[in-house]
Design goal:
The complex is a heterodimer of chains A (573) and B (485). Chain A has 573 residues and is α+β, with helices and mostly antiparallel strands. In chain A, 31% of the residues lie in helices and 21% in strands. Chain B is mainly alpha-helical and 485 residues long. The radius of gyration of chain B is 32 Å and the shape is elongated. Classes of the chains: A alpha+beta (573), B mainly alpha (485). Chains A and B meet through helix 4, helix 9, strand 12, helix 10 and helix 16 of A and helix 2, helix 3, helix 6, helix 10 and helix 12 of B.
Chain lengths: 573, 485
């Protein structure tokens, strides 16, 4: 991997030496697609989610300069009390925190936000499963800033899910008539008859309406910026609030209280070549997830005004294998296929060096939780051949192709790929050719994105080439590796049994980070042995940022930089 | 003429209806389930709780909201064995399995009973708490029921029923309670086989569903929607905005660009074609032909990228902006309207070049061909013989009669004006109809796809009507009055 961490250290060093007067300036960020909407609960688009933190705030947020979680609306990280099989998460809000109308942000606003998400009829389904372990809220009459969340289980992700997953919205803007004020969070969660309640239905209709997602007068949060312009498919403009409560907060090291540029514009440029030209022409200042080829071309001819940097990316290129397919049922076959992937060639020739090997689903940036003691699968066709022979693969008709006879028929393996994804196609062709040399015939089938996702969900595939993108938060592996995910979840491979479920469940309720890391290392060992996936590599985030900006907080945290922190170099007067 | 136009407009109605049916049928056959995609998690693997039933509830609500739980059309033609309520089964894999069972055994009441007993068994398996003794058997049992729900093959069904019996009999005591429900399911399956009425599959049957169906709701309205014919194009699955608003925004941009491109194309190609015809087989004719066909052979996406890289300020010249329509807020507030127009036009130069150059060859060939036919006519020779000036012979007597092929092509202008060009809009970051269409197709955003197809159809029909009327203007001999024998 190309000097990744060195570059990161240099950038962060540069970012520490910014001038005294940091406010002002205009940052233009390139986006590949439109954000679709600005309602933080009903919009699931990733581009929109990368923009939300300038408008809205959460109780906590992931730091851009380290693995820690920082308090934002909360005064400090919460107090977590475990009571048998349940938990209480106790919070207090910052007394300085205020909405745009000058009113303080209170526990009732937090409760309202959680009620809005769980309200029947509100299009916030993807959020439900993240927070429904919180069963009720306890508010305090004598302290409007204090509240507790009562949870029905001990969950290692509780703090993150409760604090860093949900944006807190102003009640006075999103529920001016107080339609939800007559119901508690607990009632909304459990009383199914509320779906037919007039007030609840009216709130859902209003909350789902276009205005909460598009109307610049209606979109309102406690963040430092307000949305002032959105030309669909062209640009989105945010303007710094003149009076922002965060300016009163002394929180050194907490980038969520830095809001320096006066204006942030996101230019929608769906074509990569056009975006690179715009970068070179100085029409945009920030680009992320630049393709490896474009990044190399930029390095070869770096524009004088641009810094090119890389940062780790919690993403994985993976090939799931359907373990219930008779051809792939034997783990030795899956291990053999893992030995037929020429990882180094893929990283060198396709990723152009901008990727690193990984042993399993835990990213190397996870520190102790990453099991570096597991030997990576080597590219070893001889070992693959012997594993295949052990698994019963023979060249039954002497045509040079190993086969297994399934239900009286000789069948080849099929690898599914997304259409229009040249790098993945290149990797698949390398894999196909190496497998052929070892006597394994792989047929490549190109499918469209939604079709592929449906086929994987229905287990109607043999091998596929896909990718995961995780957040830098504790990951719940039950969804991808637990047996409850076999039918309807994301466990496409049929990996798992009672003992792995128990291991994942134990990880999920282990709050102690050291112990959790130990268990995670154990899980990686099992996954490595069973080989339900070929873990190809983890790509890095390739970024270009105009040199006139410092304090960019280039990091692993999505989207890879913190635009409100940017400090623009002032020209000499 | 008036009657002719009215007749043509009346023909629009059945044509549109048929197009709407075809569009709707294609969308039904397309793979992918928009409701399933809409309720999926924010990002895989970061804490989504997948407890049984939760995801399904959200999915059912979403299907209901989108009207996908309604029958597809007013009626369905099937066999006497097939039920008229199959559309109510939400899971597509369950629906498919039940359909296959109906084809094999032809007795829906028994099949329905079997399905109900399996669902009951499934609920029961999820009501058993996991403990250290039953953890693995419970996984097997839950999976076996899930497999049964999507199975129709006899051997497969028997295999999973045997697996279930094995666990219920010899598994931990907590699973013993499943025995009765399992017996019910096994009995129901046996009843399917023993009471098979396969002959019912050979008797056709029509099921009527009334107007509360997906097609009617989309086209004529219902369930809170006014319907396509009343101008309610529905709500975009992706952005939750009215489709009309999305299309209105995009069509404005595309129309400006397309109409300018069409105007420029005609202004360049038609005179070039006419001059080529007049100077047939001269150096001018050959040169124009060679140049225009060279242009024609250049792929638009490649030329677009080259123009951006060379002229958009990247590596070479910085004459034009690299994309987009420009932000008028970048201009000073006191900027004149002329400054604003030129600012916008400046952004359109490169896209217009890419839109115009590939069409020049075809249109100029049509103009040249039409003109050559006319130049050989007697009345043109007479005009030359009378000593009329060249321009008068060519443009007044010749060109007017050579217009027909060019006018016919004009019919395509109308749908083109609203359909846009995907390549140009993507390469030059223009949020027009081309990009909207492409995104909508990829996202299975059917309300947007339906509307674009229907509007394109309307514009095509309108285009041909306008051209027919223009024929009469170009040649007074053409009349739409019916002739008496």
């Amino acid at each position: 991997m190309k000097q990744l961490f060195v570059v990161l250290v240099i950038v962060n060093t540069i970012s520490c030496s910014f001038p005294e007067n940091k406010r002002g300036g205009h940052v233009k960020v390139s986006e590949l697609e439109d954000p679709e909407g600005f309602n933080p609960y009903t919009t699931i688009n990733a581009t929109a989610h990368a923009m939300f933190p300038v408008i809205y705030q959460k109780l906590l947020a992931q730091s851009f300069s380290g693995p820690e979680i920082l308090p934002v609306l909360a005064e400090s990280r919460p107090e977590m009390t475990t009571l048998g099989d349940s938990m209480i998460i106790s919070w207090r809000l910052r007394p300085e925190a205020k909405w745009d109308n000058g009113e303080p942000i209170t526990a009732r606003d937090v409760e309202f936000s959680f009620k809005a998400i769980m309200c029947p009829g509100v299009n916030s389904y993807p959020y439900h499963s993240y927070i429904d372990f919180i069963r009720s809220f306890r508010l305090y009459d004598d302290d409007p800033l204090r509240f507790d969340m009562l949870c029905n289980k001990v969950y290692m992700r509780a703090e993150y899910s409760a604090g860093a997953e949900v944006y807190i919205l102003p009640r006075y803007v999103y529920d001016p008539e107080g339609l939800l004020s007559g119901f508690t969070y607990s009632q909304i969660l459990t009383d199914t008859s509320l779906a037919r309640n007039d007030k609840v239905a009216r709130f859902a209709e209003q909350f789902n309406s276009e205005s909460t997602a598009r109307d610049t007068n209606k979109i309102s949060g406690s963040g430092a910026y307000r949305l002032v312009q959105w030309e669909t498919g062209q640009r989105i403009v945010f303007e710094r609030k003149k009076e922002w409560w965060g300016d009163q907060v002394e929180a050194p090291g907490n980038m969520y209280f830095e809001a320096n540029p006066d204006r942030i514009t996101h230019e929608v440029i769906p074509d990569f070549a056009a975006a690179v030209t715009a970068l070179k022409a100085g029409k945009i200042d920030v680009m992320r997830q630049i393709t490896a080829a474009d990044f190399e071309a930029l390095i070869a001819d770096t524009p004088a005004h641009v810094n090119l940097v890389t940062a780790p990316f919690i993403a994985f290129s993976v090939m799931p294998m359907n373990m219930r397919n008779p051809k792939l049922a034997d783990k030795r076959t899956r291990q053999a296929l893992s030995c037929l992937m020429n990882y180094d060639r893929g990283i060198k020739d396709v990723q152009l060096g901008y990727a690193q090997r990984v042993v399993g689903p835990v990213h190397p940036t996870a520190g102790e939780a990453y099991n570096s003691e597991i030997p990576l699968y080597p590219f070893d066709p001889d070992k693959a051949r012997s594993l295949l022979a052990e698994a019963g693969w023979r060249d039954s008709n002497g045509d040079g192709v190993l086969d297994q006879v399934i239900n009286g028929r000789r069948e080849d393996l099929e690898l599914e790929l997304l259409v229009n994804n040249a790098p993945r196609e290149q990797v698949a062709l390398i894999f196909q050719s190496d497998c052929k040399k070892a006597g394994v015939k792989i047929n490549i089938r190109m499918v469209e994105g939604m079709v592929m996702s449906e086929r994987m969900r229905n287990h109607d595939f043999e091998m596929a080439y896909t990718a995961w993108l995780f957040e830098q938060a504790p990951t719940d592996y039950m969804q991808v590796f637990g047996t409850p995910g076999w039918n309807g979840g994301d466990n496409f491979t049929y990996f798992g049994n009672a003992s792995t479920d128990l291991l994942i469940a134990t990880i999920n309720k282990t709050i102690d980070e050291k112990e959790r890391a130990r268990l995670l290392r154990q899980l990686q060992e099992v996954i490595h042995e069973e080989a339900p996936y070929i873990f190809l590599w983890s790509p890095v985030n390739r970024l270009a940022i105009a040199k006139r900006f410092s304090n960019t907080y280039v990091s692993v945290t999505n989207p890879g930089y913190w635009v409100p922190g940017f400090v623009e170099e002032k020209e000499e007067e | 003429m008036f009657l002719y136009v009215v007749k043509r407009l009346l023909i629009f109605i059945p044509t549109l209806f048929i197009i709407s049916l075809i569009t709707f049928a294609i969308s039904q056959a397309a793979p992918g389930d928009p409701a399933a995609e809409m309720v999926r998690g924010l990002h895989a693997g970061d804490g989504g709780n997948i407890a049984h039933g939760k995801g399904e509830k959200a999915y059912l609500e979403k299907r209901h909201e989108l009207g996908l739980d309604l029958p597809i059309f007013y009626f369905g033609v099937s066999s006497r064995a097939a039920p008229d309520t199959l559309h109510r089964i939400a899971r597509s894999d369950h629906r498919a399995a039940l359909k296959r069972l109906v084809h094999r055994f032809g007795n829906w009441p028994e099949i329905q009973e079997y399905y109900r007993s399996l669902r009951q068994l499934q609920s029961a398996t999820y009501s058993i708490a996991t403990d250290s003794l039953n953890a693995q058997p419970l996984i097997v049992v839950r999976d076996a029921v899930a497999q049964l729900l999507s199975a129709s093959d006899d051997a497969v069904i028997r295999h999973w029923l045997n697996v279930l019996w094995g666990e219920a009999k010899s598994g931990p005591s907590s699973l013993n309670g499943l025995g009765d429900l399992l017996a019910e399911a096994s009995g129901a399956y046996a009843a399917i086989k023993s009471n098979a009425t396969r002959w019912k599959n050979y008797i056709p049957s029509i099921h009527f569903f009334g107007t509360d169906n997906q097609y009617h709701r989309w086209f004529f309205g219902g369930g809170g929607h006014k319907g396509f014919i009343r101008g309610d194009f529905g709500i975009s699955y992706k952005t939750h905005r009215p489709v009309g608003d999305e299309i209105w925004e995009a069509v404005g941009i595309t129309m400006r660009l397309s109409l300018l491109a069409i105007l420029i194309t005609y202004l360049i190609a038609v005179p070039l074609g006419v001059w080529s015809a007049v100077r047939k087989n001269t150096t001018f004719d050959h040169t124009v032909t060679a140049i225009l066909f060279s242009f024609y052979s250049l792929p638009a996406f490649w030329t677009g990228v080259l123009l951006i890289v060379w002229l958009g300020g990247g590596d070479f010249l910085s004459w034009f902006p690299p994309g987009g329509l420009g932000d008028l807020h970048d201009l000073p507030a006191e900027a004149s309207w002329w400054t604003r127009i030129t600012f916008r036009l400046w952004h359109l130069v490169l896209p217009l070049i890419v839109l115009v150059y590939p069409t020049l060859a075809f249109l100029s060939r049509q103009a040249r061909g039409g003109m050559l036919n006319v130049l050989n006519q007697d009345y043109i020779r007479t005009a030359w013989a009378k000593g009329l000036p060249r321009s008068r012979v060519v443009w007044k007597h010749g060109f007017r009669n050579a217009l027909f092929p060019v006018l016919t092509l004009l019919a395509q202008v109308f749908p083109y004006a609203i359909a846009g060009s995907v390549i140009v809009e993507v390469v030059f970051s223009i949020p027009g109809m081309g990009r909207l269409t492409l995104d909508a197709i990829y996202a299975r955003n059917y309300p947007v796809v339906y509307t674009i197809v229907m509007l394109s159809a309307i514009m095509t029909m309108f285009g041909y009507l306008v051209v027919d009327i223009l024929y009469t203007a170009a040649d007074p001999r053409i009349s739409f009055k019916s002739r008496k024998q």
